[in-house]
Amino acid sequence: NEVTELANCPDMTAVEVKVNGNRINLDSGHVEDYRRQIDLKTGEITRSFKWEVEQARVEWSSKRFVSLKDLHVFCHQVELRNPSANPITIEIISGIDGQITNSGAQHFAEGDKRLRDKIFLQMLSTTSQSKKSLVTTLSHRLRINGEEADIEQTFDIQRRRLLMNYKVTLAPNSSLEIERYATYHTDFDLDRDHSLSLVDWALAENQRIYQDGYDQLLDQSRAKWQRDVWQVAPIHIKSDNDMDDLALYFAKYHLQIMTPTHDERMNIGAKGLSGEGYKGHTFWDTELFMLPYFIYSQPDTARSLLKYRYLGLEGAHHKARDNGYQGAQYPWEAAWPSDGETTPVWGAADIIKGTATKIWSGFIEQHITGDVAFAVQQYVGITDDQDFMKHFGYEIILDTAKFWASRLNYNAHANRYEICDVIGPDEYKEHVNNNAFTNYIAHWNMQRALSLITELRASQEQVYQELDQALDLEHLETELSGKLKLFYLPQLNQAGILPQDDSYLDKQVIDISPYKNQLEVGSLFKVYNLEQVNQMQISKQADVLLLIFLFEHLFNKEAKLANWHYYEPKTTHDSSLSLSTHSILASDLGDQALAYRLFKEAISIDMGSLMTSSDDGIHAASLGGIWQMVVYGFGGLRCIDGKLRIQPHLPAEWHHLHYTIFWKGVKLEVNVQPKSFSVTNHSEIKSVNFLHRNREIEIAPQTTIELQEEN
């Protein structure tokens, strides 16, 4: 059951301090004035407290950050002050700890360890399977009362550890400052200096930042944050509740630090870089829940995230062939692009059987393939990046459509094509036939590919010829055209309900109130196993309602309301992906009070009172959902069939919403008041059209237009 995972690197964040032989530990001694905070604008974490044991007192003040300017760099500064009338002995133990594991699994083979120039600790490690090399380098600078000091030091080499030990007697009212400069470098870094060996390159880089110093490095990182994040697409909420705006900044901060903007060979893990949950793997979370933020705010980053999916076509082809299909079938869980499927086969315990539960997602949760194609079309529709489509996007949409054409099941009795034995977005329903979300996204994928073949043949002959050689477009066109005519799309029944699948509406209905919106997700599995839940009308997350959100132009308000009232009461929201979709739909349906309540529940997933909610890592998709609730929901922004729509509706608690987006290269600024809103076009040459209440409005360059909004 072992699959590839993101390895935990040797740790250089920890520092051990002893005062008169007593280790500073918040579980012992007397602690006062403890304070720990993060500046989301810079990523700098500061901590301060007073600590006393056996009549020895010390005041601790520390700060640290990972540089956004130079992603290899981690800086840490600790100041220890002696406020007492007597001298104290301070011992500092700091170094590189290579004994770190992934829940007990050691992924690195130990290599060379050494102290260079009496300052620079350096450890070479190599991953056990992929044979990737990593060099960790750490240097220290110590000062007493602001002046560099020659302090007694010893050097220790242990198994997988390199340590420096400093010892000093600190006089009354004196301070000791320790600066720690850590760098991580690998042999597959894109900015690798190949004129030097890996260890020499790493040493040279650490020597450089050692000379620059903490303050200069922080200034460089701060400037990068301002230039590339906070000033690019500013967004702000004026609310009765300060937590609303804070949650938005919290989400933007984490979306930035968890996204490998520097390397298109990587994507966003479901837990970002904050925990081992889901082994660092990438899911559909990126395309449907996080990518929209980047498309509208940082289009270049969105392009990189989608380029990752293009690089993953090799793995997608491999998965399709293994399953007896053609084309590109994207893995449910992805790691390195060429790895293909990386979903574990076995998961949590079955409370009834006492065995591990099989994870079927890697086998039959297939809507991910359509989700990727849908995201590509969303990206080009919003950015108009035709270069991306020419080199990458067309192939993704066509190759995934080829998969769906081979995946369809022909039902001779009904004379139609279906998709049988799948899992839809609602993972509490396994082995179902004709999951509506899956069928609609597959149908859209195939229809879009069919249209593209016609468009490319008529207007981009060279591109058409290249893709024809790779994918046999003439044959694909014939197959798509024939199968689309007989492709079954579930329809609304007489009650206006869209069946989630062929059997959902016939399953047992139970009272799910004991399990709905619990602090501890999945509480129903303390009573039932997944096989039992599979036979009940219980949903983990939005499924039909997610379909209605993505394809809202296919459903009128009555259908949306009917399906909301049918499915939401049956949804536990056990997935962190669920609340944001429901909040947006509540906004669309005009229930701002409910939308806001769901928004508040969603932001509490990682910022709420349950201190163990993020033990396995932060909920990355939920953070993307925060931006979507604000901009899509309350801000009323949507791209529908290639057209921009702005139709805001603020909750009563909000007095002002300001957000910025990029639409086809034009920067638009939207300011929303309770009864009106304005849109500013910052382009000097381009006009922009948008829809508001079915009326098309044009904004000329360098112009602001103000509109009244109905309550």
CATH topology of the largest domain: Glycosyltransferase
Spans of at least 5 consecutive residues with low confidence: none
The main sheet comes to: 9 strands, antiparallel
Alpha-beta content class = alpha+beta
Number of domains: 3
Percent strand equals 25-35%
Whole-number mean pLDDT: 96
Rounded to the nearest angstrom, the radius of gyration is 28 Å
CATH class of the largest domain: Mainly Alpha
CATH architecture of the largest domain: Alpha/alpha barrel
Give the overall shape, derived from the CA principal axes. globular
Please report the number of helical segments.
Answer: 18
Q: How many E-type strands? A: 27
What is the helix content? 25-40%
Measure the end-to-end span.
Answer: 54 Å
Task: Describe the structure in your own words.
The chain has 711 residues and is of the alpha+beta class. It folds into three domains: 15-230, Glycoside hydrolase, family 65, N-terminal domain (Beta-galactosidase, Chain A, domain 5, Distorted Sandwich), CATH 2.70.98.40; 233-311 and 576-711, Maltose phosphorylase, domain 3 (Sandwich), CATH 2.60.420; 338-572, Glycosyltransferase (Alpha/alpha barrel), CATH 1.50.10.10. Helices cover 34% and strands 26% of the residues. The protein contains 18 helices and 27 strands. Strands 3, 4, 5, 6, 8, 9, 10, 11 and 14 form a nine-stranded antiparallel beta sheet that branches. It has a five-stranded antiparallel beta sheet with strand order 2-1-7-13-12, with no helix packed on it. Strand 12 and strand 13 (161-170) form a beta hairpin. The mean pLDDT is 96.
